[in-house]
Amino acid sequence: MKTNFTQWFLHSSNESKNMYRTLMDRAVALITEQTTSTTHPFSGASHHEIEETVKEMLTIPSAGQKIEDVMEEIQNGIVRNSLWVSHPSAMAHLHCPPVLPSLAAEVIINALNQSMDSWDQSPSATYIEADLINFLTKQIGYLDHADGVFTSGGTQSNYMGLLLARNKACQTYFSINVHKEGLPVEASKLRILCSEHAHFSVQQSAAQLGLGMDAVVKVEVDDKQRLCLSDAKEKIERLREQGLLPFMVVATAGTTDFGSLDCIREIAKLTNEEQLWLHVDAAYGGALLFSHQYRYLVSDLCLADSITIDFHKLYYQSISCGAFFVKDRKDFQQIAYHADYLNSEEDQADGIINLVEKSVQTTKRFDALKLLMTFKLMGTDLLGELIDYTVNLARETALLLKEELSFKVLNDPEINVVLFRYLPLDHREDQAYVDEINLGIQRACYQSGELIMAKTKQNGNVYLKFTMLNPVNSISNMQVHIKRMKKAAEKIEKERGEIRYEYSIHH
Ligand SMILES: *Cc1c(COP(=O)(O)O)cnc(C)c1O
What we know:
Layout: H1 14-37, H2 47-57, H3 67-79, H4 100-112, H5 125-140, E1 147-151, H6 154-174, H7 178-181, E2 190-195, H8 201-208, E3 216-219, H9 229-241, E4 245-252, H10 264-274, E5 277-281, E6 306-310, E7 322-326, H11 345-350, H12 368-378, H13 380-403, E8 407-409, E9 417-422, H14 431-448, E10 454-458, E11 461-467, H15 475-506
Helix pairs in contact: 1-3, 2-3, 4-12, 6-8, 13-15, 14-15
């Protein structure tokens, strides 16, 4: 059998280098072609159409196909029907347009294919991650004994926060090493407090950690959608009266729905007095550390025992990129495992660091390089300016919407989220009707491919949401979208009116 496989691997041969360049060039061409051909953030294709197109693509050949053919299929079947997150009118979720340094870093990350679990698999990358974590702990305001680790994102970071806090609580209250012995029966008494707007991964983590979702006690929010301190105090007291053991508060700096920031200083005072672990989920708001105008909103992050920060949100990194931080590195010992083949005791004696000791992953991506290249090429000043611009744009957009009689804005944006709903001039009180019109607006805009926004529910009512992360977006673009939404709403109302009219004739 004579097969030429060397061209498919990175290798010193010319055919390998040629193939690498060809594939890379084609991949880049596919993307640059898309930047010019997409006027909209989405093609508007229906889920049926997309499902069918993809199905057609999925005939898996036994012999490799021509590069041109495969690339064309990928362009037509995938790229063309992808959500173009770099378009300024894509503003549904906390889903950022990635900066180019991050994309270039991915090329290097992928080719080097370093795994961050043990030093021998990532000799320099290990130190890049460790030193970048060190730099970030300084930005947070943590002292020398702080530490952290890159994660796949906010969900994993929050999970780690709950994991360390749970293990420590079991040691403190029950003198049990959970990592070794498993959960004692009394663990069913453990309780975690967070606000109603905390991310669902808090409950999910509690479930996965054997505490159950019911171990998470939801604290009310105040009129600014922040965790209400007096309610937290009352709930802690009540739990203790019932013989339960509150051990942790999860505060949020930048809630997913409102962008609101819990008051960390006050909460930290409470958790100190009550001897509770404070985890701050700053998956979203953590980027404000580099803001020029709004850094003060996160100046108390350093009071937390542990912190979640996502870089694939307001730090403009491609997915996935996040980190988990602890105030005291000793807390990582709660989860350390010594595998003889990865992080042996001898390594430790030699002063070699193996990041697996701090991670819930084994094989792990070198995502730190993306953030490093972004900081190096763009500088932290520019990053801060981009963040400020987008926050200010969201605030200006909220003002524009407030000037409109037919819109109601639910929040005064602290960061980039604007929550609002269309209120038809007639039938404003008919909530079911208003909900239906708002769902209709969101769907019509998605189907036209012109404006991608999110829908959510607050107090049982449908609201629309802009998450405005893209610094390429502008207030004039937002003016166009407000007109577009009004037009869509009027069209839906007219159609509804005609249906009603016909109904009244025929009945
Ligand atoms: C996005 C988000 C998460 C989840 O993070 P992933 O990176 O999606 O896993 C958790 N908390 C908050 C506040 C978030 O905004």
